[in-house]
Amino acid sequence: MSDEQMSEQRQQGLKKMSEVYGFDLPNFSGDPFFEVTADHLFADIWNRPGLSMRDQRLLLLGAITAQGHADILEIQVGAALRNGELDADQLREITVFLAHYVGWPSATKLDGAVRKTLAKDKKK
Asked: What is the pLDDT of residue 123?
């Protein structure tokens, strides 16, 4: 499907997904889960005016840390650094803060994602 044929909502969703994740994602047209993700979560929810992208990222980091999703944490930590929303010191402080609310095992996963992402950045 060409960009001209793609709905404005899908285009807006894909654009926001690229901003949030820090890399372009293909349009998986015909995949119901992807369509809801792009058209609703990213085109509608992530584009609401009440919170900044940084605010949303902080909330997302807290939520996925609490749920223990280390694989997603690495993606979000990397995107936060690339987008200039959070720096290394802030990410370390978030880890310490969240450890007290979501528990050490969950925060340890965030700490690992932060350390891994910062180490990758140093190599560049």
From this structure: 78
CB neighbour list of residue 108: distance below 8 Å, 6 or more residues apart:
99
End-to-end CA distance of the chain: 35
Q: pLDDT at residue 63 above 60?
A: yes
Q: Report the predicted TM-score, pTM, of the whole model to 2 decimal places.
A: 0.85
DSSP track, 61-84: HHHHHHHT-HHHHHHHHHHHHHTT
DSSP 35-49: HHIIIIIIIIITT-T
Higher pLDDT, 43 or 1: 43
Tokens of 33: 């889960």
